[in-house]
Amino acid sequence: MTTETLVLAGGCFWCTEAVFEQVRGVLDVESGYSNGQAERPTYEDVCTGATGCAEVVKLVYDPAVIGVRDLLTIFFATHDPTTLNRQGADVGTQYRSGIYWTTPEQADAARALIAELQAQRAFGAPIVTEVEPLRHYWPAEAEHQDFFARHPFHGYCLAVAAPKVAKLRRAFAQHLKPDRA
Question: Whole-model pTM?
């Protein structure tokens, strides 16, 4: 089996991870930090905004099961790509919207989908998602991995992550893992 890696920043990594853990063809989801200047930053470092790192999820997926365009369509449907350095109440550069590609085909797919969404005025405001090659990825601390699965009744999970997962289940049922449908 051939796999590919794509890294996405869609605000708090707990929410983005919760969504992509459900998606068929996604073999591994890991929360982390990327595309900043700091080496091996901690959560506390990233929260200062001084590292330049975004909270991200690293997806390892099987392109024979799910293509990058479908992954990106889910990504755009489950976060707000029009707010610069912000997702809801979470504010700071670490919460920016970003697609950090590992292959030129991923970059092309991201740019093409953004152009289509812009032409359709899909969000009513310009998309500010950055599309850049992946630089500097570090896994987040253990307490941030699988956070939604381990803490489904945490206030943030109930208020922010659960609605995103519910939207995924409604709008993208065809992409759910069999045990998640």
Answer: 0.96
